[in-house]
Every structure is written in structure tokens, then in C-alpha cells.
Amino acid sequence: MKENILLCADSESMKDPSLIGLPGEGLSMLSWLACETDAEACRAKARSRNGFDEAWVVSCDDMESINVAAAIKHDGFCGKVFLVVDGQNGSLASRASNAHIDGLWSEAMFARRYAQAKAQFAVSRGSEKADFGVDSFSGFSDASRARGDAGTGLCSGALSAGHVEGAGGGIFADSCDSRNEESRDRSGSPSFGKSDASAPKGLQDELQHSGSIGPSAAVAQAAQGNGGSAFRKEDQDALPYADSAPRVSYAVKGTPVKEGPGTVVAVVGGSGGCGKSTLSAVFALMASRAGLKTAAFDADLQFGDLDYLLGVSSPLRIEEVRDDPSRLNAVTTAPKAPLLVAAPRRLEVSELVAGEVVPMISAMKRAFDAVVVNTGAMWGDGHAGILEMADAVVFVMDRRPSSLRATVHAVELCARLGIATTGFTFVVNRYEKGSLLTAVDVSCALRGSRAVELADGGRDVDELLGAGYPDELLESRNVFIEGARGLLADILPERRAEMLCDGRKGSSKRRRTLFGKGGPK
Predict the structure, then answer these.
(1) Which run of H or of E encompasses 430?
(2) What does the angle CA 392 – CA 395 – CA 400 come to, to the nearest 5 degrees?
(3) 3-state DSSP helix/strand/coil % of the chain, to nearest 5
(4) How far, CA to CA in Å, does 475 sit from each of 386, 484, 499, 520?
(5) Which spans in 104-262 are helix H?
(6) pTM confidence score
(7) How confident is the model at residue 91 (pLDDT cuts 50, 70, 90)?
(8) Cβ(515)–Cβ(460) below 8 Å
(9) How many beta carbons lie within 10 A of that of residue 388, not counting itself?
């Protein structure tokens, strides 16, 4: 039987299909599915077979999956190209839209489409056992068959277990039952939806029945406040195979000192070395010293160093919270010190924990007055989620013109993703008289956006933070510290800003700076 669908997945997933939501499936045994693991082999097979009805791109050994999907789409040998993505995907959706990829699928949607295609080709051969070498549905676990595989969206006539019951069936049960009645033809056999005139013959309109969503719609949903996710809620929550582990849930005990949920302050930038980490550390220290219940979260997953700047020798790290969410409640801090969730200890762990950042921050928001989030210079899908959930965004650049150019690029990306930038506060850090870049330049380049200048605090800032003397720094009357305090007071809600200002009144003693720079002149 002709191979009608091309699947691109990495070697590990081919060996163990459970990694891509298809436990027990023998992918290489399916005559209708052509499987490849690297980008060039996928493109070559499409050319040699004169094309496929569909291409499913899940992952790849040697190239980012979005680039593989874009290349296959550009070659034009596949009728439709679908990309399987995981969780937050606002920027990915924008890239997919520009590449004209036909749709984005979550893992649950991919598994449903796979099961539909498998059943369809079995029916087209006149037997559920035709051309598979094994029972058509033997790849699915007994538990999955017992509950009717409600998560796959298959109509009851396609499976031996024709009703929905048990765990995992509640979400899709009603919609599947109603579709069953509508999709049966006069002979009583299930059909898989109306044919799409633009799709190759023999395949259903997967955009209608598999719940796939186009990249442009994904961007639109993100703009409407769906947390950067390109999937419907039922697709996010549903796991078609109950053998998969449940997703992690995070919670932090306690409530903010001031009523209402906490204020999430995201410190971001378009270039490295502009002072994001230092400003994040200072914000967290100021808020906690003022009596606000404060948390600091280091979302610079590769090179974050908030633990060093805050003087925390053995911090709680993101991967530790992911493995044991209860640790968020077990960590202890010094009086008037922020709770810190630090960046991963090992750089290679950063990709594994990226999807946990937003859920962790959401949980902390419910328990703290202020949550200060430090971010990295490398922008990814996680940035979109942080920016969308933040109550205040401080966009930092330094006095280099190149830093302003990077800021403009980042703001343009936010606009394409539908993230509102009107509430951003743009900061020219390390400003000195005669600097090439001023707040006026930034405001003009960003069409009237609010911009402020933070004076260069000199060696005091880095030396005192690095040496473990944050109190000395906060009480030193350093010009950078004074500017940062005013900026944070403007950002926080009124009642919390009052605590910040009241805390400063109790410290009137003028301290001499250690290095002779950055203090009063």
C-alpha cells in the first residue's frame, strides 16, 4: 500500500513512540506511514515518492522541528504540513504562520490524528487487520481500549470498544458521541468527516475533526489572552493515553501581606550585559526589606546568577521544584529576605524546565506581594508567557546604541505576538552625562513609550552585591539605588508602594561608599 503520510521524529522517539504520545505503536511496521529521523532524509523521501498527502513533523535529530516543517512546506511535495509543538508557543506560531505551515498540533491532537489515520486506512483495506502485521489496535494499551480511547476522538464504530467510559473519557465523550451520529453513512459505517476539496483524495478534513489550529489562529488566541498557548483548553488538559503521568501542579502556602494577588514584575532586555540581573536583585531586596512578602524567580535558565547576587549559597532551583513541588513550601529564608527560585544548576537542564516557568510564577503570584522575575537575553516561547502574565514589565537597555536596536527588535516581536507593550517601562541603565543614548532617544525610537534613566552606580553596586553586603548597598544613598527605588515605587500598586517608601524613611543615616563612586557628590 502506498505510503501516504510522512512522519519526522527523532531517533529516540522512533525507538520508543511513547515519548511522542503513541505508547506501544510499531511505527516502522505501518505501510501507510513513512518515517524519517533527519531533515534531509525527510525532504529526499518526499521528492523520491513524488510527495505525500500529509507530513507530520514532531522532532528531528539534526534540525529544529519548525525549520524542518518550513523546508518541507517550501519544497511543495506534501499536500499539508503539520507541526507538533509542546505547551507555550506564541513565537513559534508566528514563525509557523510566516512559513505557511498548515497547522499546529499539541501532542494530544497529534495522537488523535494518528489514530484516525490508522483506523481509516484499516477500513479502506476492508479489514481492521489488513496490512499491519498485528491487530490494528494492538498498539494501544488494554486500558486505552477499555475506555474507548475517548481522548483520540475516534468514532465508536472504528474501535471494538464503542463507548466512552472510565478515566480520561469525560472531556471528549459528549462531542465524540454527537459526531458519531452525524458521521455515519447509510450502511452504518463510520465516516471521518466531510472531504476537503483542497486536500488529496482519501484523507479527511483533519482541520475539522482533529482539532488542529492554524498558526495565524494561534497568534490570534495569544493576543486574546490565552497565555501564549495555541490550543483549546480541552486539548491542553486532555491526555489521550492515561498511562502518561499527570502534569505537575504547583502551590505555595500563605497569602500576600497586602490584600489581593501579588504583583509580578518582569525584568527583560534585548541584549546581554545591560544589567537585568542586578536590577532584579535590587528590586527583590528593596521589596523584602520594606516588609513586602517577596519572591525572586530567575528565568534566565541558562546563565542566571540571582543566587550569587542575593548571596544565597544553597538556593532552591527550578528543577528541584519541578521534581518536588512541595519544596516551595519547605524552603526557609532569613527575615526580610526574598524567597528565591534559582536557575538550573546545569545548563543542559534549561530546555527541560522551560515549560514549568509560567506555572511556577502563577503559583507564587497567589502567595506573595511581589514576584520579581529575571529573564535572559535569549528570547524564547517562555518569554511570551512571562510577558503576558506580568503586571509590570521593565525593559532594560544600556547606553549602547546597539542595545536600543535590540530593544526595538524585541518590541516588534511582542507586537507580532499580540502582546501589549503600552505598559512597558523602558530603562536606560548605567546612564551618565554625555552618554550616547538618553531616555529621549529611546522614547522617540519607540514612538512615545515611557523611558527613564538609571544613573551609573559605579563599582559599589557590583562589589557590594557580590561580596554579600546588600544592606550596605541599599542604605548607601547610591544614585543607582535611589533611582531603582523610585522606579519600583512607580511600578507597584499604591498600597505596596507606600510600604516601600515607608521603609526608606527609617534609614536616614548617610553612609560613605566603599569605593568612592556612585554615592552623593
Answers:
(1) strand 425-431
(2) 165
(3) 40, 15, 45
(4) 31, 13, 16, 12
(5) 107-124, 142-146, 173-183, 206-209, 215-223, 233-237
(6) 0.54
(7) low
(8) yes
(9) 23
